[in-house]
Amino acid sequence: MLSFEQVLKRLEPEFNKISFDQSPRCLFEPIEYILALGGKRIRPCLTLMACSIYKEDVEEAIKPAMGLEVFHNFTLLHDDLMDQADKRRNQPTVHKKWNTNTAILSGDAMLIAAYRFMGETAEPYLKNVLDLFSKTALDICCGQQYDMDFEKRDNVSEDEYIEMIRLKTAILIACCIKTGAIIGGASEKDAEHLYRFGIYIGLAFQLQDDLLDVYGDTKTFGKNIGGDILCDKKTFLLINAMILANDEQKAQLAYFRNPANNYKPEEKISIYTNIYDQLHIKDITKQKMNSLYELAIHELTDLNVAPDSLTELKKMGNMLIQRES
User: Fold this and answer.
1) Neighbour-count burial of 314, counting CB atoms closer than 10 A to its CB (0-12 exposed, 13-18 middle, 19+ buried)
2) Against a cut of 0.85, is the pTM above it?
3) Phi and psi of 176, rounded to 5°?
4) Cis amide linkage into residue 24, ω under 30° from 0
């Protein structure tokens, strides 16, 4: 199996070649801008890594892997707009550098570009890959809607939150892995086990993102710390804090969720963080992440491949939940 470093080296020249030499330039410049910001390329790398479990030559997986990465960046562009985020990968977000209308329309164009890449999948795999991609794309929209709906609710349960991040985040990671498995020639059973591996890793990945939003370093995280708190996102941390908080802590959380109250953003972030510390929410989140990782690794035990061929995938899964950015 190819390592993350090996497939990243193969993919980067392909992403560097992406350009749109058509007019109007104001539509395509934001697309080139966000793709040029780089990122970790986790999703396309997972596609090639999964493919390499079953075949040495992963060239047929490159175009769909690129399509999945373009689609991921499209979701970030629109997500930043809906959250009114100022920074992405330590640079201004598209709606800040240009404007709202540009972010919407350029995002739409990115989605179409993603489908064009996916359409270049080799014929034997094309229908299965496109069906999986289309279902994933629609489910992600459902997850985003749940995320926005939860901002208006105070009674979001942990199970509801897990289902939301399954749709919004985990299924794209699972889709990338399963896409690579399909193109590699995996059996339906193996492809499904790898998909579920991706779901569990994707859930843990999002919980780590929740932690980094509170406890991360802006320089390495690439986004402003406390963004979820200021947007009243119902994260795993906040949901568990609201369950465990005493009356005084609940009153503080309620005060800062009321936009009519006059408080400074940094004050809200500080109060929330102090309450999380008092309730050991970071430890609770880490425990949940570890249990999800164990479920992910268990899915790999049923694959019809040599265990040694999965070393790099396990290493990648561990890296995703230990990351600092």
Assistant:
1) middle
2) yes
3) -60, -45
4) yes
